[in-house]
Design a protein that fits this description.
Blueprint: E1 10-11, E2 14-15, E3 26-29, H1 41-52, H2 58-64, H3 80-92, E4 98-102, H4 110-125, E5 129-133, H5 137-143, E6 147-151, E7 154-159, H6 161-168, H7 173-185
Parallel strand pairs: 3-4, 4-5
Antiparallel strand pairs: 1-2, 6-7
Length: 186
């Protein structure tokens, strides 16, 4: 929504300046699911399918995250973890080459977390690019091929977890990230 005043942004090799078509190739999971509270879960799924106008895998995801009992419930009555599962369903039900996940583990129970990790791995195996923002270091370490550590808009590290541990001379990922924070905020 912000028009850049310098530089360029490309998505799938195409400049996105004054062209919103790129959005159809991105699936996005916001940190906080802010759904219309009066809609039922199945109504929201149908609405998003209609807006996107492309084939979806919603039935598989409904089964995977055990959402069948909630399909006729209004979104405003759902608890945080169930809302997050609906959020995940809406994100992964289309077959876009780029997926952006903002704090995807928020509110998930251990079984749903394992299912999310497996789902991410399946998408990675399909060659998709998945961008994840998270403060859960164990999740990042387990699921990421490459990390980019940003601090106040500046890149402090880009590479693999093992390269970060080597660079910082730290025994684990969490301490490696902490050492960057200490070094740049001391």
């Amino acid at each position: 929504m912000v028009i850049p005043n310098k530089g360029s942004i490309t998505v799938l090799g195409k400049n996105i300046n004054k062209n919103s078509e790129y959005r159809r190739h991105i699936d996005y999971l916001p940190q906080i699911a802010n759904f219309p509270s009066n809609l039922k879960v199945k109504e929201l799924i149908t609405m998003i399918k209609d807006l996107r106008g492309s084939p979806s895998a919603s039935e598989h995801l409904i089964e995977l995250f055990k959402l069948e009992p909630f399909l006729d419930k209004k979104l405003g009555t759902l608890y945080g973890g169930t809302k997050q599962k609906v959020n995940i369903l809406l994100t992964f039900m289309f077959d876009s080459p780029l997926i952006i996940l903002d704090e995807p583990t928020s509110g998930l129970d251990p079984i749903s977390l394992i299912r999310l990790k497996d789902l991410i791995q399946v998408q990675k195996n399909k060659g998709k690019t998945i961008l994840i923002t998270s403060h859960i270091m164990s999740f990042v370490e387990e699921i990421s091929d490459e990390i980019v550590f940003l601090l106040e808009g500046e890149i402090y590290f880009k590479g693999t977890v093992s390269a970060l541990k080597t660079k910082t001379k730290q025994p684990n990922f969490e301490r490696a990230i902490a050492s960057i924070l200490i070094e740049n905020h001391a």
